[in-house]
Amino acid sequence: MGLKDLFHKKNQATMKDGNQVIKINVANGYEPEVVEFKQGTPAKIIFNRSNDSACLARVQSDEMQFNTDLPLNQDVEVTINTDQKGEFNYACGMNMFHGKVVIK
Q1: Is the predicted pLDDT of residue 34 greater than 80, yes or no?
Q2: What's 92's DSSP letter?
Q3: How far apart are CA 92 and CA 90, in angstroms?
Q4: Would you say 98 and 90 are in contact if contact means Cβ atoms under 8 Å apart?
Q5: Hey, which residues does 101 pair with through a beta bridge?
Q6: What is the DSSP letter of 34?
Q7: Residue 54 and residue 4: Cα distance in Å, rounded?
Q8: Which residues are CB-contacts of 56 (< 8 A; sequence separation ≥ 6)?
C-alpha cells in the first residue's frame, strides 16, 4: 500500500447506521481537508475542534447550507446532502481555513 492509498482511504467515509460518516479534526485547520462521499447515500461529517482559536469556533458552507458552532472538544454532526455530484466548499467563521466535500 502506497502513500497515496493511505491518504485516499483517510478521506473516504465509513458506514454507520446507514450513513456515510467522516470525522474531521479541527486543530490547525481541517484534517482531513478534503473528504469524499458517494452520491445518493445519507452522509454526516463529525467535526471536533481541539484548538481554542475563535476563528475555528464556527464552520459554514453556503453551498451545503450549514452554519454551525463548534464547541471546544465536542463532536458536532453536520448532515450533508449527497443528491448531486460535485465539489462543495466549507470554511471557518472568518473564512481563513477551508475544506472541501467531494461527492462522487
Answers
A1: yes
A2: E
A3: 7
A4: yes
A5: 35, 88
A6: E
A7: 33
A8: 26, 49, 70, 92, 93, 97
Category of 65 on φ-ψ map: left (φ > 0), alpha (ψ -120 to 50) or beta:
left
23 closest CA partner among 1, 60, 3, 49: 49
Q: How many CB atoms lie within 10 A of CB 31?
A: 12
Q: pLDDT of 39-93, one tens digit each?
A: 999 999 999 999 999 999 999 999 999 999 999 999 999 999 999 999 999 999 9
Check residue 54 and give its pLDDT: 93
Q: How far is CA 84 from CA 7, 40, 73, in A?
A: 24, 8, 32
> Is 70 within 8 Å of 47 (Cβ atoms)?
yes
Amino acid at 90: Y
